[in-house]
User: What shape does this take?
Amino acid sequence: MQWQTDAIVSIKTRVLPAVLGALLLLFFGGCTVAHADRPSDIPGKVQIQGKVSVKGSGPHTYLCLSTKSGTDYRLEGGLKDLIWGRYQQEVITLEGVIARKAVGPGFPAEFVVHKIQSKEP
Amino acid sequence: MKLLIGPVLFIPGCLLDFLESLIILVELYQNINKGVTKMKALLKPVFYGMLVSVLTLAGCDTESGNTTSSVPTEVSGSGSYYHVSPSAGSSIDYTHNLGSTPQDVFFIFTNANASTVSASSISSSVQSEIEVPSVNEIQTLKLMTGDPDDLVAWARENGVGLRGKPEVSAFNNNPPTFGKTEPGINYQMIAPDPLYTAVNDTNPFMNTSTSDTIAATARAVVTDGTITLNIWVEDDSWDTGCPKHYCITQAMVDAFADKFLQPGTENDIYDWVTSIYGAPWGSHSNGSLIAETDPLEIDILFYDIMDDGNDPGNSDPNGGVLGFFWAKDNYKTSSIDYSNGRLLFYMDSVLSAKEDASTSWTIDDYWPAEMVSTLAHEFQHMIHFYQKNVTYNVSPETWINEMASMVAEDLVADKVWVNGPRGVSYLDDTSGSTGNVEGRLPLYNYYNEISPTTWNNSSPLPNYAINYAFGAYLARNYGGAPLFQKIVQSNKTDYQAITSAVTASGYSETFTTLLQKWGVAVLLSDQTDMSSGYRYNVGGGFASASGDIAYNVGSINMFNYSYSGLNGPLFYTPSSVSNHNKLSNTYVKVGTAQTGTFTASVEMKSGVRLTVVTKDSN
Assistant: This one.
């Protein structure tokens, strides 16, 4: 029975905190992804929200999404033209993947848009 | 704070203005705190007074009910205007006793929303249809849209100069991979030696890749004691007998060099443009970028941009791409392998060398003069990149950057002896005469309903036009050169760059009120006695100064400009207007030659403001 007692103590002292920690991580992690304006570098879909505009001097222009924190993403992908034509100056949420990191002034990270998640009401 | 909550809660349509006003006041407060103690004591009561006014009046613009009877702001002469700001979704019943002198009545709808909204419906006492182009006619008048190659071809055929180069966007679409910059390390501790170019040096300038090169030779090296200018010419464009329609000669190189840089101060484009916008390069901490050099070197490469000036092979060029700045050259070759690692911009060699018909080449000929203006335009982009992208690590929206370049052309027009985007002789400060088809404003008249804040990459000419029109308005009402210095030397990248600069210049405007007043300035630009904020035309020049340099820009009368047979601005009719573009003005002519009592009922859309303008009918 000793091992059972040890096991129960072990569950209380080690497993439960770990489970709680994992749940908290999932909860806040989920929120972070859902509202991220600085997606992680790990490949995979993320959501970004920000204002759409065209940047650069003509015609070195690119479609850009600028987040509240000031991070710019150059938008690419099949939805680019639609966003370019319709959503300039509007705040929208996009789903997609980061294809390239930012390289320096005037050359932000590249974000390939898979889905226009929502438009700010 | 109760005063704040009330109007905001009950008049949500006014929230935007309230917030903008609050931002202006915060910035004003910061500016006051930067001042000396005595100024603080004087200005703080003013600030608190303004704060109370904003909190009290936020959202309480002129009208919030269903009915208004106007008392228009009279302009001595023959025009008047009246701003009406209804609450969302309200109906305005507008009544105006026009008297016995026949009046034209215009409604300007200013859409303060970031999205396009359907048009406000208008019913008025006007019985007959107003004689302005129909929707179909308007649409057929609009320029072509399509891919950039078509645009370039169209520009060549129609004598239009483009600035910027379509294939350069490929760089932005497919940027190279860079090594990671170590934060906090200042790579500029020791300024490297400049490149020390000498006349007759040769260099293969990299174009779109390391293998796509332009063989060029240095044809002039000029210094004013502080700055060094190197002018390079593509070997295929050099001297009589080159395989191009027009070839660059030494006399041409020397003439362009004289325009850009001369010994002495306040006598060249370098001095005039940097005095407004600041230095094109300097210290920074980004290891991917080229270092600051002492002395500063600027390179200009003349080559046949687009390779469209070959003889035989291409028709006689009459337009096309005049020049461009490409920030990839500001990077080290270790970061971008096809960077030229210089402060460099590009000019079209063939148009630079094109003389007027039946004359020998001079710098005052049409295309060479356009190229002189292009020197100022592209140089502003170079400065903008350093002042905003590098210094603040933020990227401006295209329309802000292009507006600054076109205003640069405007501000230096009478110094470089080029007419510039205004399209009136640089010797003439008045608004010129009717039937003017020159400059950017004829096209603006046809596209005055688009937003200055958006950019159409496949057909950008209307964007250039409206951005010049808006920039010219700002320069003539809110401080000229110093205003645009504040716009560029700022960490703001969008409309806030303008509102912050306007505030810092001592004015209190939101972006919405700027759009509204701009609309009035357009419609009453044939009046020379408008008050500040509504001016395009004072019958002479608008003066400003930056540093020790004085600037002057001429008056503008939009009714002097013609395009495709239509004179003056394009107006919609109540039945032809279908929507209000985001952040834009829509000009609707609701009455022609009206007398007596004019009435109109307007169903307003949320976030849309109405301004009524009346003027003597022609």
